[in-house]
Amino acid sequence: MAAGVDSIKMEALSLSEGIREAPVCIIVLGMAGSGKTTFTRSLIQHAQEKFNPYVVNLDPACREVPYAAHVDIRDTVNYREVMKQYQLGPNGGIVTALNMFTTKMAQFAELVRRAGERGHKWCIIDTPGQIEVFTWSASGNIITEGLATMFPTIVVYVMDVVRSACPTTFMSNMLYACSILYKTRLPFLVALNKIDLKDCSYVQDWMTDFEVFQDALEQEQSFVSNLTRTMSLTLDTFYENLTTCGVSAKTGVGFAQLIKHILDCVVEYDKDYKPVYEKMRKERLAEQQAALCPKPPDNVEEAGVAVPLGLKLNDPPPNSGNSIFLMAPGLVPQSNEEEEVEDMEEDAKGSAEDQNFQSFVQSHLTAQQSKRDKLLQEQSQS
Ligand SMILES: Nc1nc2c(ncn2[C@@H]2O[C@H](COP(=O)(O)OP(=O)(O)OP(=O)(O)O)[C@@H](O)[C@H]2O)c(=O)[nH]1
Questions:
Q1: Does residue 82 have its Cβ closer than 6 Å to ligand 1?
Q2: Is the reported ipTM for this assembly greater than 0.85?
């Protein structure tokens, strides 16, 4: 990362200023090998003049990137060292490296903010090859939400049209895209990449005409294709709200159109998503301020008398017969009113029976006694 990052004051990263106009953060996501890095390079070239992009590489495992990154995670975290030190495999290493980077999130956001002040209108963020590492990790979440609460943020999902030509692969890709869309809650653009190798019109046909996709599926007779058929019905609504654009990251075809779509997404962020993130920003701010507020005193002096302000529960003295328990629903034996009533009835019945028995014994004893008295009286008379 750029020199002097540690000198950035954390207080400078203020949530109180509201979501800024710039830079617009463009998070580039996509399956491994879909062409994210090549796409990022091409997007930088096409946007350079107008948007002067600030470029971030968040892939700690890549050997080299074909663009000049302003912020490169590899300068902050040594991925190989992380793997060695924590005895991790490649994916564990990437997750841990991202987690380590996230501890510098405040400084990172501050760098992005300053870049906006210096005239960078866009901030393009290239992400790790293993998409799930970013989309389903806590650090990926922190980075995405952190950026979206401070800057207009959109997601560009890069999809390889050559690999997606198989309907089931296409469907897996779409399910992934769908899950990311709902998880990030950000404007979402699908870049259909590698159109220099294969025309992407089939994707648009499959997305707009259910019958055409079913015909393509007919070719595949497997359990997966049956599952895909069912899934495709569900994804119809998702397709309706999805913007796609064919590009070739290699030749640069389609990027003029893609940039127009990105600008539409920014308008969409302002209109539909900004209020949601504004609310989230205010909540974060309130949390920050609550954490900074000094703890209220336990007592206030009122006319020389200390008035306790909170309920203070002290442990009861031992053997006092009075205990305080912290109870959780699962731990507390559930009291059942019906059972209690039944128990009371049983008790009442029991005591009535008891009484009956006692009076029976008593009357029996009395009868016995009177018999004995009568016998004794007869004996004495005779
Ligand atoms: N023909 C063609 N090849 C492409 C295009 N975009 C990317 N590639 C190639 O696809 C391969 C993968 O591209 P990358 O940019 O490394 O893809 P990535 O998604 O960043 O890869 P990981 O980060 O490793 O997951 C490379 O060989 C690229 O040259 C394209 O538009 N057309």
A1: no
A2: yes
The CATH number given to whatever domain includes residue 62 is 3.40.50.300
Burial code of 346-381, b = ≥16 C-beta within 10 A, e = fewer? eeeeeeeeeeeeeeeeeeeeeeeeeeeeeeeeeeee
Instruction: Among 27, 29, 37, 57, name the best residue to mutate to test ligand 1's pocket (greatest count of ligand atoms within 8 A of Cβ).
Output: 37
Cα separation, 81 vs 66, in Å, equals 23
CA 34 – ligand 1 centroid, Å: 6
- Give me the torsion for CA of 343, 346, 347, 348, rounded to 10°: 120
Residue 185, SS3 per DSSP: coil
Peptide bond into 167 cis (omega under 30): no
Q: The domain containing residue 107 runs over which residues?
A: 22-197+244-270
Residue 312 lies in a domain: no
Please tell me whether residue 37 adopts helix, strand or coil conformation: helix
pLDDT: is 14 or 16 the higher one?
Answer: 16
Q: Which atom of ligand 1 is nearest to the CA of 251?
A: 31
pLDDT in tens, 175-193: 888 888 888 889 999 999 9
Q: Is 34 in the pocket of ligand 1 (CB under 6 A)?
A: yes
> Atom of ligand 1 at shortest distance to CA of 197?
1
